[in-house]
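Write out the 3D structure for:
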Amino acid sequence: MRLKLVISYDGAPFAGWQSQAGGDAVQDVIEAAFRKIVGDRVVVQGSGRTDAGVHALAQVAHAEVPDGSLPLGSWLRALNANLPPGVRIMRVTRASKDFHARFSATGKVYRYLIRNGQVLPPLELGRVWHVASPLAVGDLRAAAEIFVGEHDFAAFAANRGGPIHSTVRRITSITIMERAGLFSLRFEGGGFLYKMVRMLTAALVRHAQGKASLDDLRSILLEGKPKWNHVAPAEGLYLEKVLYTGTPKSRQAQPPGAV
């Protein structure tokens, strides 16, 4: 039986999503939970990687479990009973045999949170990027318009160490909202390169701070150089939703304090 899992996690204690030799990734602890339940390894395939420190509200994964191991309705409780408190399976459904968490996905939604002001509220520690210098929504939105659409984002992506087939990606929307000093930047697109959302967030912020002009950003995007070397911290980033054909247009999950 193939299971589809919707997973939420606090990324702070983990070395990202993808399995690591030290067993300290989110994928590792979920596979360990499956092993405790069925007595053998169950491979968990995620929709994609998240970096160390990046959070997820609704990461999606699938796993093939032995028929008859547990009734479908028992998997949610069984998995959560064997996971650390920073990782929770939010929903378990039966998936078709041809469903693949990564290859069936049509897009993703990321949200980045910025606390703007002199003081970082203690309960937002590790959940937002604290930027003390004043930011204006209009400046952030003006910079965001540059990146919406299909572009070659080679200058705004880090190198994982392996070849990249293509650095062309389409961003369908960047929505920016602010309430009481908390900025919410929502990125939706067909796919994102390594550290791309965090680099774009840093670009928007540096423009709002007067450190990068709109012409600078347009030129770097068009020419692919110089390489953008500013990256927003991991703790402000959330994988909000993975999109599949037929994904309902319901209200998205919100990180704590999001607007």
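The radius of gyration is 19 Å.
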